[in-house]
Specification:
Layout: E1 13-19, H1 29-46, E2 49-55, E3 59-65, H2 72-93, H3 98-101, E4 103-106, E5 109-112, E6 115-123, H4 127-143, H5 158-161
Antiparallel strand pairs: 1-3, 1-6, 2-3, 4-5
Helix pairs in contact: 1-2
Length: 175
């Protein structure tokens, strides 16, 4: 069954995309920084508003507001393509044994795959729903037992919203 995506509703979108086979691949700061940089680059290229995020070991949650006419799939595709290419270069240069686990046959060709092909998205129907998803992002590392407080997880928008200077990504004003 083909998943239906509803774009251009002028609503915030809560998006989740996962690593290949949900493997915990986003566990070192180098890879995390690559994903952060890829989100920044996609923002500059595709002009969407970033409202919240969290990087987890095997998935990424984003709360975004795409510009009118910009498909969320294009945004996620850009982030995944850029980050995958850079991580592949690192793994290839270091001759990592992980390369074999991340190589799959698609269309009779062997291909590197860091991310799952699909993503999950949810339209936030109102501002309350949007902030609920942002808070979900912030509390996800706590719920998973990775940290005791959202403040302890540098890889989310929590630090930005709570006035710390050492946040990883600047959030956009949606007002």
């Amino acid at each position: 069954m083909k998943l239906k995506h509803y774009d251009n509703l002028n609503q915030a979108r809560f998006i989740t995309f996962c690593t290949h086979q949900s493997m915990p691949l986003i566990t070192n700061n180098k890879y995390r920084q690559i994903v952060i940089d890829s989100i920044k680059a996609a923002k500059n290229k595709l002009h969407f508003k970033l409202i919240g995020y969290v990087l987890m070991p095997e998935h990424v949650h984003l709360v975004i507001l795409p510009d009118q006419g910009t498909r969320a799939g294009a945004i996620i595709g850009e982030i995944k393509q850029v980050s995958s290419k850079k991580i592949h270069e690192i793994l290839d240069t270091s001759k990592s044994p992980l390369l074999e686990k991340l190589t799959v046959r698609r269309n009779h060709l062997m291909r590197f795959t860091f991310w799952q092909r699909r993503c999950y998205d949810h339209n936030c129907r109102d501002e309350e729903s949007m902030w609920e998803k942002v808070n979900y992002c912030h509390n996800n590392p706590v719920k998973r037992g990775l940290v005791k407080s959202p403040l302890d997880w540098r890889w989310s928008s929590y630090r930005y919203y709570n006035g710390y200077d050492d946040y990883m990504l600047e959030m956009d004003n949606i007002g």
